[in-house]
Amino acid sequence: MAATEIPVAVTSLTSAAPVGHGWPVEYDVLILDAATRQSLACARSLGRAGLRVAMGECFAECDPALPVLAFRSRYSARNVVLPSFAANPAAFADGIADFVREHPTRVLLPAMDGAIAALMSRRQQLEALGCLLALPANPVLELANNKDRTLAVARDLGIAIPKTMRISTPDDVPTVLAEFQFPFVLKPAVSWAPQSQRRLQGREVVDQAEAVTVTREFLEAGVSVLAQEWAGGRREGVTLFLLGDDVLASFAHLEHRTSPPLGGVSVLREGVPMPSDIYDPSVRLAAAVGLQGLCEVEFRRDAAGRPLLMEINARLAGPVETALKSGVNFPLMVWQWATGQPVDRLDGYKSGYRSRWLRGDMRWLRDNYQQAGRPDGMLPRQALWTFISEFTRTFHYDCLDRHDLRPALAELRTTAAAVLRSRSAGAASGRQDEGIAHVQ
Asked: Is the whole model's pTM more than 0.85, yes or no?
Protein backbone atom coordinates (compact mmCIF):
# COMPACT_ATOMS: atom_id res chain seq x y z
CA MET A 1 0.00 0.00 0.00
CA ALA A 2 1.81 3.10 -1.19
CA ALA A 3 2.03 6.47 0.48
CA THR A 4 -0.51 9.01 -0.75
CA GLU A 5 -0.41 12.78 -0.80
CA ILE A 6 -2.25 15.60 0.86
CA PRO A 7 -2.88 18.22 -1.88
CA VAL A 8 0.17 20.44 -2.14
CA ALA A 9 -2.09 23.49 -1.80
CA VAL A 10 -2.14 23.00 1.96
CA THR A 11 1.58 23.82 2.16
CA SER A 12 3.39 27.03 1.33
CA LEU A 13 5.83 25.40 -1.09
CA THR A 14 4.13 24.58 -4.38
CA SER A 15 7.02 23.21 -6.44
CA ALA A 16 6.53 19.64 -5.22
CA ALA A 17 4.70 17.23 -7.52
CA PRO A 18 2.32 14.47 -6.44
CA VAL A 19 3.69 10.96 -6.04
CA GLY A 20 3.49 8.98 -9.27
CA HIS A 21 3.97 11.92 -11.69
CA GLY A 22 7.51 10.80 -12.45
CA TRP A 23 9.29 13.83 -10.99
CA PRO A 24 12.09 12.58 -8.70
CA VAL A 25 11.98 15.45 -6.21
CA GLU A 26 14.63 14.93 -3.53
CA TYR A 27 14.32 15.66 0.20
CA ASP A 28 16.88 16.09 2.90
CA VAL A 29 14.61 14.63 5.56
CA LEU A 30 11.24 12.94 5.98
CA ILE A 31 9.93 13.68 9.47
CA LEU A 32 7.20 11.33 10.66
CA ASP A 33 4.44 11.78 13.25
CA ALA A 34 3.56 15.20 11.84
CA ALA A 35 0.68 15.66 14.31
CA THR A 36 3.12 15.93 17.22
CA ARG A 37 4.58 19.15 18.54
CA GLN A 38 8.13 17.81 18.51
CA SER A 39 7.85 16.98 14.80
CA LEU A 40 6.59 20.49 14.08
CA ALA A 41 9.53 21.94 16.02
CA CYS A 42 11.92 19.76 13.99
CA ALA A 43 10.36 20.86 10.70
CA ARG A 44 10.87 24.50 11.61
CA SER A 45 14.43 23.96 12.80
CA LEU A 46 15.55 22.01 9.74
CA GLY A 47 13.59 24.13 7.30
CA ARG A 48 15.24 27.28 8.62
CA ALA A 49 18.61 25.58 8.19
CA GLY A 50 17.88 25.43 4.47
CA LEU A 51 16.95 21.74 4.30
CA ARG A 52 14.12 20.44 2.14
CA VAL A 53 11.62 18.82 4.52
CA ALA A 54 8.81 16.34 3.89
CA MET A 55 6.32 15.44 6.62
CA GLY A 56 4.52 12.13 7.10
CA GLU A 57 1.57 11.07 9.27
CA CYS A 58 -1.02 8.30 9.61
CA PHE A 59 -4.47 9.85 9.75
CA ALA A 60 -5.70 6.67 11.41
CA GLU A 61 -3.60 7.56 14.49
CA CYS A 62 -5.07 11.08 14.81
CA ASP A 63 -8.33 12.57 15.91
CA PRO A 64 -9.92 13.62 12.58
CA ALA A 65 -11.26 16.77 14.23
CA LEU A 66 -7.73 17.99 14.98
CA PRO A 67 -5.18 19.48 12.58
CA VAL A 68 -1.99 17.64 11.67
CA LEU A 69 0.17 20.49 12.91
CA ALA A 70 3.26 20.17 10.73
CA PHE A 71 1.15 19.72 7.57
CA ARG A 72 0.20 23.38 8.05
CA SER A 73 3.79 24.57 8.37
CA ARG A 74 5.43 26.68 5.68
CA TYR A 75 8.53 24.52 6.14
CA SER A 76 6.88 21.34 4.88
CA ALA A 77 7.60 20.93 1.17
CA ARG A 78 5.42 17.80 0.93
CA ASN A 79 2.81 16.22 3.18
CA VAL A 80 2.60 12.44 2.97
CA VAL A 81 -0.32 10.41 4.34
CA LEU A 82 0.78 6.90 5.32
CA PRO A 83 -1.03 3.68 6.25
CA SER A 84 -1.57 3.10 9.96
CA PHE A 85 1.50 1.81 11.79
CA ALA A 86 -0.84 0.43 14.46
CA ALA A 87 -3.23 -1.48 12.21
CA ASN A 88 -0.71 -2.50 9.55
CA PRO A 89 2.95 -1.80 10.37
CA ALA A 90 4.16 -3.59 7.22
CA ALA A 91 2.02 -1.35 4.99
CA PHE A 92 3.27 1.69 6.90
CA ALA A 93 6.90 0.73 6.28
CA ASP A 94 6.12 -0.14 2.64
CA GLY A 95 4.56 3.28 2.16
CA ILE A 96 7.70 4.98 3.41
CA ALA A 97 9.91 2.77 1.23
CA ASP A 98 7.74 3.64 -1.81
CA PHE A 99 8.09 7.34 -1.09
CA VAL A 100 11.85 7.13 -0.58
CA ARG A 101 12.26 5.04 -3.72
CA GLU A 102 10.48 7.64 -5.85
CA HIS A 103 11.79 10.67 -3.98
CA PRO A 104 15.38 10.14 -2.76
CA THR A 105 15.49 11.16 0.89
CA ARG A 106 18.67 11.32 2.97
CA VAL A 107 17.26 10.98 6.50
CA LEU A 108 14.14 9.49 8.06
CA LEU A 109 13.23 10.91 11.47
CA PRO A 110 10.39 9.28 13.48
CA ALA A 111 9.13 10.73 16.76
CA MET A 112 6.79 8.10 18.22
CA ASP A 113 7.24 4.59 19.57
CA GLY A 114 4.79 3.01 17.14
CA ALA A 115 6.51 4.37 14.05
CA ILE A 116 9.91 3.35 15.42
CA ALA A 117 8.73 -0.19 16.13
CA ALA A 118 7.39 -0.54 12.59
CA LEU A 119 10.64 0.69 11.02
CA MET A 120 13.33 -1.10 13.01
CA SER A 121 13.17 -4.24 10.87
CA ARG A 122 13.30 -2.13 7.68
CA ARG A 123 16.51 -0.25 8.49
CA GLN A 124 18.64 -2.17 5.97
CA GLN A 125 16.02 -1.82 3.24
CA LEU A 126 15.90 1.95 3.77
CA GLU A 127 19.69 2.21 3.83
CA ALA A 128 19.84 0.34 0.53
CA LEU A 129 17.58 3.07 -0.86
CA GLY A 130 19.99 5.71 0.44
CA CYS A 131 17.83 6.75 3.42
CA LEU A 132 19.31 6.72 6.93
CA LEU A 133 17.13 6.11 9.98
CA ALA A 134 18.16 8.76 12.51
CA LEU A 135 18.06 6.44 15.52
CA PRO A 136 20.55 4.35 17.52
CA ALA A 137 21.27 0.78 16.43
CA ASN A 138 18.40 -1.70 16.82
CA PRO A 139 19.89 -3.66 19.77
CA VAL A 140 20.37 -0.38 21.64
CA LEU A 141 16.81 0.69 20.87
CA GLU A 142 15.44 -2.62 22.12
CA LEU A 143 17.27 -2.17 25.41
CA ALA A 144 16.37 1.50 25.85
CA ASN A 145 12.70 0.90 25.01
CA ASN A 146 12.34 -1.82 27.65
CA LYS A 147 11.82 -0.28 31.09
CA ASP A 148 12.54 -3.54 32.88
CA ARG A 149 15.94 -3.96 31.18
CA THR A 150 16.78 -0.26 31.57
CA LEU A 151 16.07 -0.35 35.29
CA ALA A 152 18.29 -3.42 35.61
CA VAL A 153 21.17 -1.52 33.99
CA ALA A 154 20.54 1.43 36.30
CA ARG A 155 20.47 -0.84 39.34
CA ASP A 156 23.87 -2.29 38.36
CA LEU A 157 25.25 1.25 38.03
CA GLY A 158 24.02 2.23 41.49
CA ILE A 159 21.47 4.71 40.10
CA ALA A 160 18.47 5.12 42.39
CA ILE A 161 15.21 3.66 41.07
CA PRO A 162 11.76 3.30 42.65
CA LYS A 163 10.98 0.10 44.49
CA THR A 164 9.95 -2.16 41.60
CA MET A 165 8.43 -5.62 41.14
CA ARG A 166 7.78 -7.42 37.87
CA ILE A 167 4.37 -8.92 37.11
CA SER A 168 4.36 -11.64 34.46
CA THR A 169 0.96 -13.25 35.13
CA PRO A 170 -2.20 -12.32 37.07
CA ASP A 171 -1.07 -14.79 39.74
CA ASP A 172 1.73 -12.35 40.66
CA VAL A 173 -0.71 -9.65 41.75
CA PRO A 174 -1.31 -10.88 45.35
CA THR A 175 2.43 -10.87 46.01
CA VAL A 176 2.68 -7.30 44.72
CA LEU A 177 -0.27 -6.18 46.82
CA ALA A 178 1.45 -7.55 49.90
CA GLU A 179 4.59 -5.50 49.13
CA PHE A 180 3.15 -2.14 48.09
CA GLN A 181 0.98 0.47 49.75
CA PHE A 182 -1.66 2.33 47.76
CA PRO A 183 -1.31 4.38 45.70
CA PHE A 184 1.35 2.78 43.55
CA VAL A 185 2.07 2.77 39.82
CA LEU A 186 1.70 0.06 37.19
CA LYS A 187 3.73 0.46 33.99
CA PRO A 188 4.02 -1.63 30.84
CA ALA A 189 7.57 -2.90 30.34
CA VAL A 190 7.41 -1.48 26.80
CA SER A 191 5.13 1.30 25.59
CA TRP A 192 4.34 -0.22 22.20
CA ALA A 193 2.87 -3.70 22.57
CA PRO A 194 2.17 -6.34 19.93
CA GLN A 195 -1.50 -6.80 20.84
CA SER A 196 -2.36 -3.13 21.27
CA GLN A 197 -3.02 -0.44 18.68
CA ARG A 198 -2.25 2.44 21.01
CA ARG A 199 0.67 3.57 23.11
CA LEU A 200 0.52 2.19 26.65
CA GLN A 201 1.15 4.54 29.56
CA GLY A 202 1.77 3.98 33.24
CA ARG A 203 -1.22 4.41 35.56
CA GLU A 204 -1.58 4.91 39.26
CA VAL A 205 -3.85 2.51 41.14
CA VAL A 206 -5.56 3.27 44.43
CA ASP A 207 -7.18 -0.05 45.35
CA GLN A 208 -7.07 -3.76 44.60
CA ALA A 209 -9.78 -3.64 41.95
CA GLU A 210 -7.87 -1.06 39.93
CA ALA A 211 -4.62 -2.96 40.32
CA VAL A 212 -6.17 -6.16 38.95
CA THR A 213 -7.91 -4.38 36.07
CA VAL A 214 -4.85 -2.43 34.90
CA THR A 215 -2.58 -5.44 35.24
CA ARG A 216 -4.86 -7.58 33.10
CA GLU A 217 -5.12 -4.82 30.50
CA PHE A 218 -1.34 -4.61 30.10
CA LEU A 219 -0.80 -8.37 30.15
CA GLU A 220 -3.49 -8.88 27.50
CA ALA A 221 -1.66 -6.34 25.34
CA GLY A 222 1.30 -8.73 25.32
CA VAL A 223 3.71 -7.05 27.73
CA SER A 224 4.88 -7.69 31.25
CA VAL A 225 4.05 -5.16 33.95
CA LEU A 226 6.19 -3.24 36.44
CA ALA A 227 4.75 -2.27 39.81
CA GLN A 228 6.52 0.75 41.28
CA GLU A 229 6.22 2.83 44.40
CA TRP A 230 4.60 6.19 43.75
CA ALA A 231 6.92 9.20 44.00
CA GLY A 232 5.18 12.55 44.32
CA GLY A 233 8.04 15.02 43.83
CA ARG A 234 9.33 17.08 40.92
CA ARG A 235 9.47 15.59 37.43
CA GLU A 236 12.81 16.42 35.84
CA GLY A 237 14.47 15.33 32.63
CA VAL A 238 17.86 15.55 30.96
CA THR A 239 18.16 15.57 27.17
CA LEU A 240 21.58 14.55 25.89
CA PHE A 241 23.32 14.43 22.54
CA LEU A 242 26.10 11.86 22.56
CA LEU A 243 28.82 11.14 20.03
CA GLY A 244 31.20 8.39 21.02
CA ASP A 245 32.13 9.01 24.64
CA ASP A 246 31.41 12.74 24.46
CA VAL A 247 28.31 14.66 25.47
CA LEU A 248 28.10 17.38 22.83
CA ALA A 249 25.01 19.06 24.26
CA SER A 250 22.69 18.72 27.24
CA PHE A 251 19.49 20.36 28.43
CA ALA A 252 17.54 19.99 31.67
CA HIS A 253 13.86 20.69 32.08
CA LEU A 254 11.25 20.62 34.82
CA GLU A 255 7.80 19.25 34.02
CA HIS A 256 5.31 21.42 35.89
CA ARG A 257 2.28 19.61 34.49
CA THR A 258 1.44 16.60 32.35
CA SER A 259 -1.75 15.01 31.06
CA PRO A 260 -2.61 12.57 32.56
CA PRO A 261 -1.28 14.18 35.75
CA LEU A 262 0.75 11.09 36.72
CA GLY A 263 3.22 11.68 33.90
CA GLY A 264 1.74 11.63 30.43
CA VAL A 265 1.92 14.23 27.69
CA SER A 266 4.05 17.27 28.50
CA VAL A 267 1.76 20.25 29.14
CA LEU A 268 3.91 22.84 30.92
CA ARG A 269 7.69 22.65 31.17
CA GLU A 270 10.59 24.95 31.96
CA GLY A 271 14.27 24.89 31.10
CA VAL A 272 16.27 24.80 34.34
CA PRO A 273 19.96 24.88 35.28
CA MET A 274 21.41 21.40 35.04
CA PRO A 275 20.94 19.54 38.37
CA SER A 276 24.19 17.75 39.14
CA ASP A 277 22.44 14.85 40.87
CA ILE A 278 20.64 13.80 37.68
CA TYR A 279 23.21 14.79 35.03
CA ASP A 280 25.86 12.29 36.04
CA PRO A 281 23.42 9.35 36.34
CA SER A 282 21.92 10.28 32.96
CA VAL A 283 25.28 10.25 31.22
CA ARG A 284 26.37 6.99 32.88
CA LEU A 285 23.08 5.28 32.01
CA ALA A 286 23.09 6.44 28.38
CA ALA A 287 26.69 5.26 27.99
CA ALA A 288 25.96 1.88 29.57
CA VAL A 289 22.96 1.35 27.29
CA GLY A 290 25.12 2.29 24.29
CA LEU A 291 23.07 5.24 23.11
CA GLN A 292 24.34 7.58 20.43
CA GLY A 293 22.73 10.74 19.15
CA LEU A 294 19.69 12.09 21.00
CA CYS A 295 18.11 10.69 24.16
CA GLU A 296 16.09 11.90 27.13
CA VAL A 297 16.39 10.51 30.67
CA GLU A 298 13.44 11.10 33.02
CA PHE A 299 13.49 11.28 36.82
CA ARG A 300 11.00 11.94 39.58
CA ARG A 301 11.95 12.93 43.09
CA ASP A 302 10.60 11.21 46.18
CA ALA A 303 9.40 12.89 49.37
CA ALA A 304 13.01 13.33 50.53
CA GLY A 305 14.02 15.03 47.25
CA ARG A 306 16.01 12.04 46.00
CA PRO A 307 15.85 11.63 42.18
CA LEU A 308 14.53 8.25 41.04
CA LEU A 309 14.99 7.06 37.47
CA MET A 310 11.72 6.65 35.56
CA GLU A 311 12.76 5.80 32.00
CA ILE A 312 14.95 6.69 29.05
CA ASN A 313 13.65 7.74 25.61
CA ALA A 314 15.89 7.16 22.60
CA ARG A 315 13.85 9.46 20.34
CA LEU A 316 12.52 12.97 19.93
CA ALA A 317 10.53 13.93 23.01
CA GLY A 318 8.25 16.73 24.15
CA PRO A 319 10.95 19.09 25.53
CA VAL A 320 12.64 19.54 22.12
CA GLU A 321 10.78 22.81 21.42
CA THR A 322 11.68 24.21 24.85
CA ALA A 323 15.31 23.23 24.23
CA LEU A 324 15.24 25.02 20.86
CA LYS A 325 13.90 28.19 22.47
CA SER A 326 16.65 27.88 25.09
CA GLY A 327 19.37 27.76 22.44
CA VAL A 328 19.94 24.01 21.92
CA ASN A 329 19.19 22.93 18.35
CA PHE A 330 18.86 19.18 18.85
CA PRO A 331 17.04 18.55 15.52
CA LEU A 332 19.91 20.00 13.48
CA MET A 333 22.42 18.02 15.52
CA VAL A 334 20.47 14.82 14.82
CA TRP A 335 20.46 15.53 11.08
CA GLN A 336 24.19 16.30 11.05
CA TRP A 337 24.93 13.12 13.02
CA ALA A 338 22.76 10.95 10.79
CA THR A 339 24.44 12.24 7.62
CA GLY A 340 27.98 11.87 9.00
CA GLN A 341 28.69 15.59 9.19
CA PRO A 342 30.63 17.29 12.01
CA VAL A 343 28.43 18.10 15.01
CA ASP A 344 29.46 21.13 17.01
CA ARG A 345 29.75 20.97 20.77
CA LEU A 346 27.36 23.27 22.64
CA ASP A 347 28.31 24.49 26.09
CA GLY A 348 25.40 25.83 28.10
CA TYR A 349 21.90 27.10 27.36
CA LYS A 350 19.51 29.76 28.55
CA SER A 351 17.50 28.52 31.54
CA GLY A 352 14.16 29.80 32.79
CA TYR A 353 12.28 29.47 29.49
CA ARG A 354 8.73 28.39 30.28
CA SER A 355 6.67 26.70 27.54
CA ARG A 356 2.99 25.74 27.66
CA TRP A 357 0.74 23.61 25.47
CA LEU A 358 -2.59 25.36 25.96
CA ARG A 359 -4.80 22.60 24.59
CA GLY A 360 -2.98 20.06 26.75
CA ASP A 361 -3.32 22.31 29.78
CA MET A 362 -7.06 22.37 29.20
CA ARG A 363 -6.98 18.56 29.24
CA TRP A 364 -5.01 18.71 32.51
CA LEU A 365 -7.72 20.96 33.98
CA ARG A 366 -10.41 18.57 32.81
CA ASP A 367 -8.49 15.62 34.29
CA ASN A 368 -8.45 17.30 37.68
CA TYR A 369 -12.19 17.94 37.59
CA GLN A 370 -13.02 14.40 36.49
CA GLN A 371 -10.56 12.64 38.81
CA ALA A 372 -10.60 14.76 41.94
CA GLY A 373 -8.74 13.13 44.81
CA ARG A 374 -6.42 11.03 42.64
CA PRO A 375 -2.62 11.05 43.18
CA ASP A 376 -0.94 14.03 41.46
CA GLY A 377 -4.29 15.78 41.20
CA MET A 378 -5.48 19.10 42.62
CA LEU A 379 -8.76 20.17 44.08
CA PRO A 380 -10.91 21.65 41.28
CA ARG A 381 -10.77 25.21 42.62
CA GLN A 382 -7.00 25.07 43.04
CA ALA A 383 -6.59 23.58 39.55
CA LEU A 384 -8.68 26.35 38.00
CA TRP A 385 -6.63 29.06 39.71
CA THR A 386 -3.39 27.35 38.64
CA PHE A 387 -4.61 27.20 35.05
CA ILE A 388 -5.72 30.85 34.94
CA SER A 389 -2.68 32.30 36.71
CA GLU A 390 -0.36 30.59 34.23
CA PHE A 391 -1.29 33.18 31.59
CA THR A 392 0.81 35.75 33.48
CA ARG A 393 3.91 33.53 33.68
CA THR A 394 4.26 31.66 30.40
CA PHE A 395 6.92 32.88 27.96
CA HIS A 396 5.96 30.71 25.01
CA TYR A 397 3.04 28.66 23.78
CA ASP A 398 3.78 25.43 21.93
CA CYS A 399 3.21 25.60 18.15
CA LEU A 400 3.13 29.42 18.15
CA ASP A 401 5.68 31.04 15.83
CA ARG A 402 5.14 34.46 14.30
CA HIS A 403 7.01 33.37 11.16
CA ASP A 404 4.91 30.21 10.80
CA LEU A 405 1.46 30.96 12.14
CA ARG A 406 -0.78 28.45 10.38
CA PRO A 407 -0.16 25.49 12.76
CA ALA A 408 -0.99 27.61 15.81
CA LEU A 409 -4.04 29.17 14.15
CA ALA A 410 -5.34 25.72 13.18
CA GLU A 411 -4.95 24.43 16.72
CA LEU A 412 -6.53 27.59 18.13
CA ARG A 413 -9.60 27.09 15.93
CA THR A 414 -10.03 23.47 16.99
CA THR A 415 -9.43 24.35 20.64
CA ALA A 416 -12.10 27.05 20.51
CA ALA A 417 -14.49 24.63 18.79
CA ALA A 418 -13.83 22.02 21.49
CA VAL A 419 -14.66 24.56 24.21
CA LEU A 420 -17.92 25.49 22.49
CA ARG A 421 -18.85 21.85 22.03
CA SER A 422 -18.11 21.11 25.68
CA ARG A 423 -20.39 23.90 26.82
CA SER A 424 -23.25 22.66 24.66
CA ALA A 425 -22.75 18.93 25.13
CA GLY A 426 -21.82 18.75 28.83
CA ALA A 427 -20.32 15.34 29.44
CA ALA A 428 -19.19 15.07 25.81
CA SER A 429 -16.24 17.31 26.65
CA GLY A 430 -14.55 14.34 28.28
CA ARG A 431 -14.30 12.67 24.88
CA GLN A 432 -13.08 15.51 22.69
CA ASP A 433 -9.35 15.14 23.29
CA GLU A 434 -8.90 11.39 23.65
CA GLY A 435 -7.63 11.06 20.10
CA ILE A 436 -4.49 13.09 20.81
CA ALA A 437 -3.30 11.19 23.85
CA HIS A 438 -0.40 9.87 21.77
CA VAL A 439 0.91 13.33 20.90
CA GLN A 440 4.00 14.07 23.00
From this structure: yes
